[in-house]
Amino acid sequence: MKKTFAAALIGVILSLLLLGVPVFAASKSEVRPSISCSPSVLPLDKKANVIILGSGFQPGQEVLILFHDALGVLTALPEPAVANERGSWATVWEMSDYVGKKIITDGVYSIMAADAKYNVLATTTAGFVDVSKDAKDWPDWAKAAGLKKPEGKPKEGKEEKKKKGN
Amino acid sequence: MRKFICLCIVLMFVAFWSGSPGHAAAPPYYKGKSIEIMGESRVGGGTDTMARIIASVLPKHIPGNPNIVVRAMPGGAGAIANNIFYAKGKPDGLHLMMNSSSPIALQLRSRDIAKYDLTKLEHIGNVNRGSNMMMVRKTVLKRLYDPKAEPVICGTKEGEETWMAMALWGKEFLGWNIRWIPGYSGTSDIELAFQRGEIDMFATSNAFIIKRLLEEGVVEIIAQGGTYKNKKFQRRPDFANYPTFEEVLGKKKPAGVAWQAYIAWVGGNDVDKFLVAPRNTPKKYVNILRTGFASMAKDPKFDGLVKKMVSEAYDVGVGEETGDLLKEVLNVPPAALDFGRELQEKYGLIATKKK
To answer: Shortest Cα distance from B221 to chain A (angstroms)?
Structure first.
């Protein structure tokens, strides 16, 4: 009975080892990749920029920044960020085309950092607020972030554009 | 002892075999993987938009339902992305490129810039959004026909777009009073320049942009490229009220090599937006992608998105159909190519030196 139990135990351990299960793997303390956005809540504005920062990556690692657009399509920013010798990086996301072409509309977005094979390594969130809407219609988190309605000329409507065109 | 060893071996074999990947049916190649579609235009431009539409529908038509990531790499009228993709594109079925007619034009007329051969890529499919509509700001329209007035400014990427044939042949044969500003990165960039008042004239086949500018009342459509069928350019159904450039030319339509050159120049528009995989991508992946593309083209979601975001009237080609069309478009007689180049040089567009 003892022999049978020992045989079963040895058999299972050997097969797990063959399958690559790290039975005896030493636990290592690792710094997990993390990212953040600054600001994390901002007006939906063509002139807006978001600074994305990351740490805990491999030194020299190319990091792709991803988000799901308004259609739900996973989109990568054109240029990858590259981690420095401490595994940190920072990059600027210029919103101009993304807002202008309605690839980003108002709402909360997951911003992801991924490796070259698009495996997601870390995520954060950013909230975009359509500040041209009446402030009372803003979501609570936008009000709590202290955003203000921009001052200045109201947007040019179609009628004004028509007059200019003619 | 012998029993003990036998039991060990049997247990090991059973546990290993039941956990091995070969035991179950192999999952589809694309399961859990991500496909990258590199776009050669700016974010939000026509090519990028088509890449997004495809990326939102194609995954469900590919076994394993991969993620599709869209990544823009604008610049050089598509030459930068195409040069990189041609030289370094990984043939693993996971790297694709959304291309357009501008790189076709570059391959035809600017061999010093275009370090690629589009016919050698693996062709997945194409979407032809219809012909280009040439638009001029209403307030400057009179100047277009008055050679003594200040020239109307036309925005262009590199002077190589298919619609530039209308502008060049218009200047040569109709006396259109045009000056160019080249260097824009794509249609969305050109449209922004139009909105800023930097330019007064450009063309696009993107119905979404055309209709918006018409609704705003700021532009006049002076001609459309048309689709070349039965030796004549046909109007696109969703803009059937506007004349083709051939109709605008009327009696001034040139004959011989000058007209042959025009037809050759605008040919790239028949391919329009096309999806390719790198050279030497294994056939098994290419076939999966082509089958998926064909299935996607019949999906009502795809139809709805194209009609909503790009064009009411469009054509889809799949696989070799797209490749054959490309080969046909790129097979231009040297005399016709030379005529186009000479027009570009004559009117001060970016010179493309003859080899």
So the answer is: 13
- The span from the CA of A8 to the CA of B12, in Å, is 9
Check if B334 contacts A (Cβ < 8 Å).
Answer: no
Q: Which amino acid is at A120?
A: V
Distance from CA of A118 to the nearest CA of B (A): 6
Domains of chain B with CATH codes: 34-129+269-330 (3.40.190.150), 133-267+334-346 (3.40.190.10)
CATH 2.60.40.1930 fits A34-148, yes or no: yes
Token representation of residue B147: 């050679």
Q: Determine the distance in angstroms separating the CA of B251 from the nearest CA of chain A, rounded to an integer.
A: 31
Three-state SS at B33 = coil
Q: Do A71 and B68 touch (CB under 8 A)?
A: no
Which positions in chain A touch B70 (Cβ < 8 Å)? 69, 73-76
Q: Which 3 state secondary structure label does DSSP give B223? A: strand
| pLDDT tens digits, A16-43 | 555 555 444 444 557 899 999 999 999 9
| Interface A:B, Cβ pairs < 8 A | 113
Model pTM?
Answer: 0.78
B161-204 per-position pLDDT tens digit: 899 999 999 999 999 999 999 988 788 889 989 999 999 999 99
Q: Is B34 part of the contact surface with chain A (CB cutoff 8 Å)?
A: yes
User: Any alpha helices (H) in B20-131, and if so which ranges?
Assistant: 46-57, 79-88, 101-109
Is the ipTM above a cut-off of 0.95? no
- Distance from C-alpha of B278 to C-alpha of B95, rounded to nearest angstrom: 7
